Amino acid sequence: TDQARPEGAAPAPVLILVERAYGPAAGGAPDFREADPSAAQLLVTDFVATRGDGVFETLGAFDGTLANVGPHLDRLTRSAAMIDLAGPDHDVLRAALEAAVAAHPPVPELTVRLSLTRGVEGSGVPSCWIHARVADDYAPARAGLSVVSLDRGLPTTAPASSPWLLAGAKTLSYAVNMAVLREAQRRGAEEVLFVSSEGYALEGPTSTLLVRLGDRWVTTPVDAGVLPGTSVASAFALLRAEGAECGEELLTIEQVREADAAWLLSSGRLAAPIRQLDGVDLPVDAALTARLGDAIAGRA
Ligand code: PLP
């Protein structure tokens, strides 16, 4: 459902096809163009359709301003490198992202997804597009989530021992990340905290773990196989500016259950407090949650 809009009244999404993700246009062709978001645009032989072979980013735009564009583009390049795709042209993508937001009617919160795939089989040319739509209503999640911890089945050493598993890459093979949410629902919870095979807390299927232990703020080490979150970087910047100690540290799931507070952070939903983990209640601080959210949204 869209933000407090009557059924059917949400503005149409915006689609931008990026023709020149790898450098300036030859012969004056535009780098990107708007296309009909309700018409078919992708060939069925695109590797993303046949193999889920591609990478993506989801950005938030708040009151018409995109948050954390540079970090998102840097992470897209990192994910692309992990699947042996060349890094796309950041200047072109930045202009295309801004064009997508500008083409959308003004709304408080937009979800902007940037996809880069290996392209049509045999072409050797990646496909790239941007889709901007009104954000889901995240108010319930921002009030607090009931979370269940589920085993990801990988040790924290997987990135070093088996980099081909792509732990920590934001790939377009997110069926597992969606399946685990359905499992959470079957277990009566709303969200998931992935746990490593050794019992360490990792991340959510689309979010980064932030834990408060007294005056210390902790997130999962990136080398344990989690996505480097842009939101947790924004949260740490705010907290460090206020003098708090922030860092990466492996925590067992028991340590998270006993923490002073914990959140799942992400670019669209912002800061969602964990109000319950595996049936254990955690304290929720609404004012602090709102401040963390503002920092992630670039409103702080
Ligand atoms: N971890 C995973 C697996 C994700 O998919 C995401 C975002 O979708 C995040 C963490 C949070 O990243 P960010 O804060 O940059 O949105």
From TrEMBL:
InterPro entries referenced in this protein's UniProt entry, alphabetically: Aminotrans_IV (IPR001544), Aminotransferase-like (IPR036038), BCAT-like_C (IPR043132), BCAT-like_N (IPR043131), Class-IV_PLP-Dep_Aminotrnsfr (IPR050571)
Membrane-spanning intervals of the chain: none
Example GO molecular function: transaminase activity
The organism of origin for this protein: Brachybacterium rhamnosum
Keywords per UniProt: Aminotransferase, Transferase
Pfam family, one: Aminotran_4
The keyword GTP-binding is annotated on this UniProt entry: no
Family as reported in the entry's similarity comment: Belongs to the class-IV pyridoxal-phosphate-dependent aminotransferase family.
Protein name: Aminotransferase class IV
